[in-house]
What does this fold into?
Amino acid sequence: NDEGLNTGGMGAYAPAPCVTPDLQKEIEAMCIKTVQKMAERGTPYVGVLYAGMMLTPNGPSVLEFNCRFGDPETQVVLPLLETDLYEVFCACCDGTLEEVDVRFKENTSAATVVCAALGYPEKYPKGMEITGLTEANAISGVKVYHAGTYLDNEISRCSGGRVLAVTGVGPSLKDGLSASYNAVRKLAFVGSNGDGLMHYRTDIAKGAINKKLRIGVLGSTRGTALIPVIEACANGTLNAEIVAVVSNKSKTQILDKGKALGVTVTTKFVSSKGLSREQYDAECTSVLVGAGAEYILLIGYMRILSGSFCDFWSGRCINVHPSLLPKHAGGMDLAVHQAVIDAGETESGCTIHEVTEEVDGGPIVIQKVVKVESGETAESLKAKIQPLEGKAFVDAIGKVCGKEVISYADAGVDIEAGNELVEIIKPACKDTRRPGCDADLGGFGGLFDLAAAGYDSANTVLIGATDGVGTKLRIAQATNNHKYVGIDLVAMCVNDLIVAGGEPLFFLDYYATGRLAVEEAASVVRGIAEGCKQAGCGLIGGETAEMPSMYAPGDYDLAGFSVGAVDRNSILPSNVGAGDVLLGLTSSGIHSNGFSLVRKLLEKEGVGYESPCPWDSSAATIGDSLLTPTKIYVKSCLPLIKNKLLNGMAHITGGGLLENLPRVLPKGVVAEITGHPALPAVFKWMQETSGLDDKEMLKTFNCGIGMVLVVKSDKVEEAKTLLQTVGETAFDLGVLVSGEGAQVVMKRCLS
It folds into this structure.
């Protein structure tokens, strides 16, 4: 196989496709500087200097220098040398090398595959007969070099570890590699008992043959359409990479996007001052070629291209136009969309076309279509079409990359990773078992037995609830802390179930992502399992969806679904009226609502998730504090429900106290809030930073109260006692009175 100790020095190829013209110049300069410094120190070097280089994110770095020909590197370099090697050697000895025109063959590549004795570099046999040499040498473009061989009565035999080096030369690397392997397959090392004792690697130049398409970009504006291309390159949807971003504007967002890709991407402003169109385009071409670009995208490029540029990049340069060409060619931006509307078109879209001297007249590559609705404006039509432009570029580049077979994995979906995730999370799910379910995973659906859970199906009503975690997920993703959002997901569902008087029975989750990171997803599901344990419900199933075209790399979304049961005579709210007392149960923090505003406030204050927490010195960072999981109220409230101490409950989520409490109040009943506790520190910071008044705070956040209980006045003390037994503290929040108008009236301020 291609693994193990026999991986070193087993093959080579040249030239290396990863070395662009700019990199070539940089590497040559490093070698020349080394030789110059040696001469300056009085030790001039004469001979072959073999330099080992590594390409890093910061450019090429020297690994080593050797005073020798490399092996097997020599066998791929020498066949490409056009200048006579003897002439080069003599010039080195005479000190006249600078007078020799050292040239290499153009449009020619070579590949060498080493044939080694089986077992090399550890103990290996010797003396095996080598067969197939005549047939291998007869293949066009092939040269077989002997390293560890000897002649025994006209029979070639093995005498070393690396026995032969088979070099193939051709007009492309693929051709040279094919010739080399065709020759290798003619060879055999035959032992005394007839066994084949030859080993060679089968993956020489594999990465170079499957190299990525190198994309160069010319742009003048924001470069919005470049974002899907960047994402598709990053997540593997495209076998391509962006190597250069060039602009005629010194300050434009498309250059910022190029710089964000890292130092290995050439990002450059090329000034047109004093240059003709042809001269300017030649400067841009020089930058693109130097970066190794093979295929050019025009993204918001506000220049007419010269004929020489179009000729040089013919068939390798594409542009996007905001209409269905050939209709409405030549226009730009809103003027094109208005022309479509004025012409009474029922369809429009965008077109990717090859660039020629005729503006918008090149061959069409891809078109994306949208409907033109009645009453459409140029602005609304642009809003429909513009998001399709990046997708159209991705599709067009995909046609150039051209995979013959496209698997699910090629589309970015890793089935094996999904299977691995299921195996990892099974133990956590089994820990949520309860009467009625076994919490086994892997079937098509999860089963729950109501009778086994103690419910009489004739008198039982099922309750369903679904919810998500919202933009709190952004914080988890930014801090790489995923272990609590699963608890949030369960809490948002089961807390909604409990307010109807129901006991949560089972839970299912939906996890959607662009690319499945198994351990990350497992951390989320472990959190879901922990939430289910806190709620006393079984995690009986879920769905993991990997959708590269829907989510950016690193992003995921969650949705939860919970089902509970309640006796039809015990459904809440029930018999809620004036005179009832309101008890408030504390929240654990912000819970899972209001995070779009929270993130905006952090941005306003110039602090990040890794910053020290200004409202909680016990939290390591702001991110840690914000990710405090949502409190689950099931086990504290179920005893009260079963003892018939509650008439109603309100889960304080989005909309806060002012919008959630009225959902359990009958018409003509008003909640007077007389005992709302002071704002916890986190909400106090949010209020001070945002400038929100009490009313807006109570409509945005839970403000420290996550659940409100409606209790008859004669049962308040019994309810408090039961809450205390499970460690829950209840605030005397207020009372219900008869009245009209606003159903929640604050009788005291939050401060």
About this structure: The radius of gyration is 36 Å. Residues 403-411 have pLDDT under 50 and may be disordered. Residues 50 and 66 are 5 Å apart (CA to CA). Residues 378-401 form the longest helix (24 residues).
